[in-house]
Amino acid sequence: MKKNKTSSSSGGGGGGGGAEAAAAMRVIVPLQGVVQGRGGLVLGSVIPCALLYFIQLYFRSRGGGGGDGREKSPPAAEAEQSSPALQRVHSRTLLFSRGHAPPPHVSSRAAAIAQNCNGPYYAGLERAHDDPYDDVANPDGVIHLALSHNTLVSDLVGEWVADHCAESLFGQELNMSDVAAYQPFDGLMELKMATSRFMSWHTGKGRFFDPENIVLTSGAAPAVEMLVFSLADTGNAFLVPSPYCPDLDEVKWRTGVEFIPVPCRRTDAFAISINALDRAFNQAKNRRQKVRGIIISNPSNPAGVLHSREVLETLLDFATEKNIHIISIESVLASEEFVSMTEVAEDVDKTRVHIVHALSNDLSVPSLATEFIYTCNETVLASVKKLARFSSVSVPTQRVLTSMLSDTKFVGNAVKVTRERIRRMRAGLAHGLRKSGIECVGSDGGLYCWADMSPLIRSYSEKGEIEMFDRLLSVAKINAVPGCSCHSVELGWFGFCFASLREEDIDIVLRRIRTVSDAGRSPR
User: Regarding the domain with residue range 111-151+416-517, which homologous superfamily does it belong to in the CATH classification?
Assistant: First the structure.
């Protein structure tokens, strides 16, 4: 009997939706019989009908309903109204109308870096960038004396570039493939060999610098960062004689290391003190902090002290005794008396000495931002070669520098003229400051005048030093480096970099500084 009902139901398929109804009845009719047997005629009729209604409604909502069983696409207006995209736009509008959308997450590292860029040093950089001095276009702008950018022989460089730039980039046959193709991230071998010859010539005695041990980087700070990353783990420390360049603190951001400032004092003419280094090392050891090395600049930046061979030898003995590394940031421009740490370490353990050299700054083209690392430690060398991909130098820049360094006549003359202008400009600036009652450290090294303005600050404190910095920046329109940004323990000292000035600009700088110095000395 049930079979007959089922057969008749499946055979009577007239009208639209017959197939779906037949399928539904094959399920419902057996269920109807069960319900009738237990609940009587009423329940046996109502429940199957309700189930049939909901099943038909389900199939229609899925697009199965309709006269001929075929899907019909909804009208364009209905499709547009039911578009999910419009519904999302509507909900997004309602969300933003409340004005309470939370900001997307950024890392704690980013927040810490942003907070560390709020000191006077960075404020001065921003002011100098927004209102730069120009003797014609903006004669009342801020004169920028806070960065050690050497442009002293830019006139000579300009003449060389006008005569040789196209040939140095593309060669005599204008071969574009040499410039456009990818090259090793650690630098072209041609530039490494030219750099080796440059260093051998200008560090004296014709010492050999192995080009295989050179890694080129785009800037001194990235070079130091790569070395620090390769020498120390997160939480380890380096001893850094202070005052030191504020840019060096940026090395801590990604490496996670700590710098321990080791004070160099006025009574020692801001020279490195081995006793102070030993004291700082022992204090770190008592705090269970591992010291992995010492970072120095030669000449020191910003004090401009040129380290003698005796000081460097004592420093290397200290590093050997403590079994730590030395990173030396060097420039051959300072003086003919310059001694490289590689020369001192030649007969000792060279694997603990690593050089960072300001190549483009020595050549008076700081905008090319090309420095190099020189290390004889095979593990460190392999590491920094890999890390160089994050700070590689463009191929066109390397081509220009290779051609420039290969022109030994030009380079020799440029270095000679640069040293002469350094001596003249530093002497002129120091003499003018002395006439205003401001004394400078007596050194011919470096690109700064490290000047004692403590008699002019109103309170002998860091607050008074920052007030003097604000007066220099706002009243005199001079951006200098305050000692507090360099971790100096001597209050009231400021760094004035003269290497980006012309000789005729020295008088303008001195006149502006007098507007502050003539305002009176501190009543102490």
Answer: Aspartate Aminotransferase, domain 1 (3.90.1150.10)
